[in-house]
């Protein structure tokens, strides 16, 4: 018990040094009856990672009529070291994705976001943590992940949200994500991956209202080495916080199928 | 609250209770058998534990078949005969000498997931999911409800918005997400996770997640409308009671209106069984409230992802095909 505690304090300290976020141990964190950090609640990233994981200045949006409302906000990036280490051919593909993003980004079509993108979409998500289960439900498209707490073995097939296997390392929830469908993107800037993607997420509750989130991204078909993103996730503390429905399928039907509407009155 | 609360289930195996809204002759429903050695398990937070992966698959129809008339239950012999007939029809070899025609019968036992048995409550087979009214039939619809319900079968191809919600990947078909959460032809699986603030129910089809809010007692303001409604819950003894309102005008449960009000009760009655009882009330649509009851049975899982929108190639074909047919018909007139 003592060594576990020490380990978690060391890792919390490392988090603190990296991010400037107060480390666990400095603040009292809520715990579940079984002593685990209590991650229950509604969380949201407060950054522009979904527009672009890397540093980017604000720019005009893709749809003229949206004006300032559709403009893309700037951000200093969430990638450790600043640069995503693409292999040369993959970098060319990313640039092509960027050029075609209005047509090609799966988010435009209301497709499931995959991991880690689900975490930093500009929508809240809710963690459900009990002694037996851990599940994450996202407002966007009612995307859902069950985080297995026992090793489920290899994913039987690829899926959009992949297969998540979680375990605790001290006070950090570590989630190993495999079996991710190659068609999801990492952001709106065309950052992408292949079916070889392997994501390891780390959720560390550093105070009652902040989770430090890290994801290590490994994909030997697309990147020259593994790389890491990190960001704080903030708890929605407003009294009436809850997830609402964002069933975006309805919002993209005209875009996808409008060409097939029956023309009347002629 | 417009609902009168249900009389809580007495701990007597043969007790007879009244369904909600006891205006009509009550269906006689026995309370679940109580095994003295078994008590409802608790979560670490001390809540009755409904967690797990469950299925409500059953061949018991929503409405009672004529052969059972006013009988809510079937004898073992009747049940066996019904099950054989139903399973032969559903899962039997439907091939003919015409391979073209056989395409329409291509779904088989591997694809269907209705189970092979009638729903059993307290070990006794049920002839309909509806327990009230006592004839096991949906109450008469109001004229307004009749009109809305007829629209369900319009089968127009003029706009994608005319297509059924299931086909559009907006909701699972047949009210699988509900509420009421009805068993349908396949993918009848659910996962429940409980926290003190929220009980979460994952609905397999279209990965819909229901949030049961345990931390408030008032519904959202009336201008907030949700496809699956706004669900608030409370514990009545060991029973989770969920009250749902604020449905959208597009959530058409058998012609329901925006005043649809659904009251569900989830009771863990055995290690592998949650008894589900749901009352549907919508005076604008149904001439009286009606109540269904059936078990959710534990199943091993896991539940895999039901990505629908991502693979909805059919919608392009359905709508594109309709326009192609229009053009052919125009050409024919020339």
In sequence order, what are the helices and strands of chain A, one letter per element? HEHHHEEEEEEEEH
Strand order of the largest sheet of chain B: 1-6-7-8-9-10-11-12-13
- The CATH C-level name of the domain at 52-56 and 130-301 in chain B is Mainly Beta
Strand count, sense and barrel status of the largest sheet of chain B are: 9 strands, mixed, barrel
Number of helices of chain A: 5
% residues in beta strands of chain A = 15-25%
Q: How big is the Rg of chain A?
A: 19 Å
The counted number of beta strands of chain B is 13
Number of H- or I-type helical stretches of chain B: 4
Physical arrangement of strands within the biggest beta sheet of chain A: 1-2-3-4-5-6-7-8-9
Total strand segments of chain A: 9
Reported by name, the CATH topology of the domain at 52-56 and 130-301 in chain B is: Lipocalin
Query: How would you state the average pLDDT of chain A, rounded?
Result: 92
Principal-axes geometry of chain B comes out as: globular
Euclidean distance between termini CA atoms of chain A: 78 Å
Uncertain runs of chain A are: 1-10, 12-17
By CATH, the superfamily of the domain at 52-56 and 130-301 in chain B comes out as: Calycin beta-barrel core domain
Query: Major sheet of chain A: size, sense and barrel closure?
Result: 9 strands, mixed, barrel
Structural domains of chain A: how many: 1
């Amino acid at each position: 018990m003592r060594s576990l505690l020490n380990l978690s304090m060391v890792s919390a300290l490392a988090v603190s040094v990296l991010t400037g976020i107060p480390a666990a141990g400095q603040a009292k964190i809520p715990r579940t009856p079984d002593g685990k950090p209590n991650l229950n609640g509604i969380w949201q990233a407060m950054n522009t990672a979904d527009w672009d994981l890397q540093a980017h200045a604000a720019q005009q949006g893709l749809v003229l009529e949206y004006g300032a409302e559709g403009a893309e906000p700037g951000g200093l990036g969430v990638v450790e070291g600043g640069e995503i280490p693409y292999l040369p051919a993959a970098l060319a593909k990313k640039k092509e994705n960027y050029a075609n993003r209005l047509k090609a980004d799966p988010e435009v079509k209301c497709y499931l976001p995959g991991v880690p993108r689900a975490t930093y979409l500009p929508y809240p998500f809710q963690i459900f943590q009990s002694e037996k289960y851990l599940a994450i439900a996202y407002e966007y498209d009612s995307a859902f992940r069950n985080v297995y707490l026992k090793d489920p073995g290899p994913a039987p097939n690829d899926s959009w949200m992949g297969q998540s296997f979680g375990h605790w390392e001290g006070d950090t929830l570590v989630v190993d994500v495999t079996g991710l469908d190659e068609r999801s993107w990492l952001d709106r800037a065309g950052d992408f991956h292949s079916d070889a993607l392997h994501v390891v997420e780390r959720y560390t509750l550093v105070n009652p209202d902040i989770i430090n989130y890290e994801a290590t991204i490994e994909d030997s078909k697309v990147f020259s080495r593994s790389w890491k993103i990190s960001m704080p996730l903030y708890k929605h503390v407003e009294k009436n916080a809850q997830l609402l429905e964002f069933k975006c399928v309805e919002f993209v039907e005209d875009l996808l199928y409008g060409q097939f509407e029956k023309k009347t009155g002629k | 609250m417009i609902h009168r609360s249900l009389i809580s289930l007495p701990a007597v195996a043969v007790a007879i209770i009244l369904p909600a809204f006891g205006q009509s002759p009550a269906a006689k429903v026995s309370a679940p058998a109580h095994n003295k050695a078994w008590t409802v398990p608790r979560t670490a937070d001390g809540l009755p534990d409904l967690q797990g992966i469950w299925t409500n698959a059953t061949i018991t129809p929503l409405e009672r078949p004529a052969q059972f008339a006013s009988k809510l239950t079937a004898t073992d012999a009747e049940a066996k005969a019904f099950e054989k007939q139903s399973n032969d029809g559903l899962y039997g070899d439907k091939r003919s000498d015409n391979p073209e025609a056989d395409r329409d019968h291509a779904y088989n036992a591997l694809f269907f997931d209705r189970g092979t048995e009638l729903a059993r409550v307290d070990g006794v087979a049920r002839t309909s999911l509806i327990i009230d009214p006592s004839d096991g039939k949906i109450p008469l619809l109001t004229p307004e409800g009749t009109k809305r319900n007829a629209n369900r079968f319009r089968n127009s191809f003029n706009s994608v918005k005319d297509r059924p919600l299931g086909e559009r990947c907006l909701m699972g078909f047949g009210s699988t997400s509900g509420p009421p959460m009805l068993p349908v032809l396949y993918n009848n699986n659910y996962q429940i996770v409980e926290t003190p603030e929220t009980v979460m129910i994952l609905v397999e089809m279209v990965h819909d997640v229901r949030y049961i809010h345990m931390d408030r007692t008032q519904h959202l303001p009336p201008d907030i409308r949700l496809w699956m409604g706004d669900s608030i819950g409370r514990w009545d003894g060991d029973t989770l009671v969920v009250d749902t309102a604020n449905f959208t005008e597009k959530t058409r449960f058998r012609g329901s209106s925006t005043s649809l009000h659904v009251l569900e009760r989830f009771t863990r009655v055995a290690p592998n069984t949650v008894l589900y009882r749901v009352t549907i009330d919508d005076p604008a649509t149904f001439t009286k409230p009606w109540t269904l009851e059936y078990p959710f049975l534990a199943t091993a899982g896991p539940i895999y992802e039901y990505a629908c929108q991502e693979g909805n190639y059919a919608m392009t074909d359905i709508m594109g095909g309709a326009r192609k047919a229009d053009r052919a018909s125009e050409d024919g007139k020339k």
